[in-house]
Design brief:
Blueprint (H helix, E strand, L loop, with lengths): L27 H9 L1 H6 L5 E4 L5 H8 L5 E4 L3 H14 L5 E3 L4 H4 L4 E5 L4 H14 L5 E7 L5 H8 L2 E6 L6 E9 L8 E5 L2 E5 L11 H9 L13 E4 L5 H9 L5 E5 L2 H13 L6 E5 L11 E6 L4 E2 L2 E2 L3 H12 E12 L5 H7 L3 E6 L3 E7 L2
Parallel strand pairs: 1-2, 1-4, 2-3, 4-5, 10-11, 10-13, 11-12, 13-16
Antiparallel strand pairs: 5-7, 6-7, 8-9, 14-15, 16-18, 17-18
Length: about 375
């Protein structure tokens, strides 16, 4: 499909992710990446364009709108992947794009890669090394972002995997780095760490990396010795599991229990599986990529641990946590408990009381609060 009309950015939706003022489905960086790569994309054959880090489909669908076919895409966030599928269907472009994990097949033989720069340098390193290992030797990577989220360290990371790096002029507070000459590529491997008796594994982009963030450390120190729901068939749930530290801790502390961990981040899910394996509990820890706890039935668990994020992509928002509290309440049986750690300044207690049920403080330090909410 080659359209004479400009790509309709305004028709893109974030759904099923958050929709709110200030949260957009496409921005100036997406437009700049597409503009700067236009000639290279026009010369690419079917299957020679790959897209990484596309938030809600602007890059992949913009490339398809201009005639690209066989476009392979990886998005870390499941909500973004589902939004892209919705947007592709709405624009009649579903047959031109396909979503893949961050594996060799994503970039194998690609000559053009459109990359929305991740905020994590470790994530960028994983992506760049994968492209260098498996893309066509003539590949050109168009890596862009908003200036406020870019740093000179990104140039250094790209230079580990590419011999030439050019920088475009800035436009509308956005810029594109253009990388050529791939070398020394490799498949991503998780970073390794140990903390509080846990072996931690983290692929690039997973929250906190291969270490315990201070909120999770406080939560682990105060989790109950006898979690609500004593049945061996009743799963202990690590909601928004990140690298799986809480899931591994629960499995080690309760050898007779099954643990269910979920996160919508592909990097988090891969990390949590690696963490479970490193601690020898992967036979009792199920890790799922899911938006909220949608795969869990109503009233199907009695214990959930949660360290809720407060970012949707690069945007800070207070709307994520209430959605997570509501889904935790749906999954909990009456009397079941939600153990939650949160930055004290966010003052989530009233929301927990309203959405889940009676809430008490279990611990507090200079920055974080741990609460226990009993499902009504």
């Amino acid at each position: 499909m080659i359209s004479a009309a400009p790509f309709p950015f305004a028709r893109l939706s974030r759904l099923p992710d958050l929709e709110a003022p200030g949260l957009v489905a496409a921005d100036a960086a997406d437009r700049l990446i597409l503009d700067e790569s236009a000639d290279a994309r026009a010369a690419a054959a079917a299957g020679e364009i790959a897209v990484v880090g596309d938030a809600y489909g602007a890059l992949a669908l913009g490339a398809a709108w201009d005639g690209g076919t066989g476009i392979r895409i990886h998005q870390d966030a499941l909500a973004g992947e589902r939004a892209l599928a919705r947007n592709a269907a709405a624009l009649g472009l579903a047959g031109h794009v396909s979503s893949l994990p961050l594996i060799a097949e994503l970039v194998s033989g690609a000559r053009v890669v459109l990359l929305r720069l991740p905020r994590s340098l470790d994530a960028l390193d994983d992506i760049a090394a994968l492209i260098a290992a498996h893309a066509h030797p003539d590949v050109v990577v168009w890596a862009g972002g908003r200036l406020k989220h870019m740093s000179l360290a990104m140039n250094d990371v790209l230079a580990r995997s590419f011999g030439r790096l050019d920088v475009t002029l800035a436009r509308q507070k956005s810029r594109v780095l253009v990388a050529r000459g791939p070398h020394d590529g490799h498949d991503p491997v998780p970073a390794e760490g140990d903390a509080d008796g846990l072996a931690l594994r983290a692929f690039g982009g997973a929250f906190a990396g291969a270490r315990l963030d201070i909120g999770t450390r406080l939560l682990l120190a105060h989790l109950p010795q006898d979690p609500a729901g004593g049945s061996a068939s009743d799963p202990l749930i690590d909601f928004a599991c990140g690298t799986g530290a809480v899931a591994a801790h629960l499995a080690l502390a309760h050898p007779g229990r099954h643990v269910y961990a979920s996160d919508q981040s592909a990097a988090a899910v891969a990390s949590a599986r690696a963490t479970a394996a490193a601690n020898g509990v992967d036979d009792r820890v199920e890790v799922a990529r899911d938006d909220l706890l949608q795969a869990r039935a109503d009233a199907s668990a009695s214990f959930i641990a949660l360290n809720p994020p407060f970012h949707s992509g690069a945007a800070v928002t207070d709307r994520l946590a209430p959605r997570m509290f509501a889904d935790a309440a749906r999954v909990l049986r009456p009397g079941g408990e939600l153990w939650c750690v949160w930055n004290s300044g966010l003052r989530y207690r009233s929301a927990l009381e309203r959405i889940v049920g009676p809430t008490r403080q279990a611990a507090r330090d200079a920055k974080f609060t741990v609460t226990v909410s009993a499902r009504r």
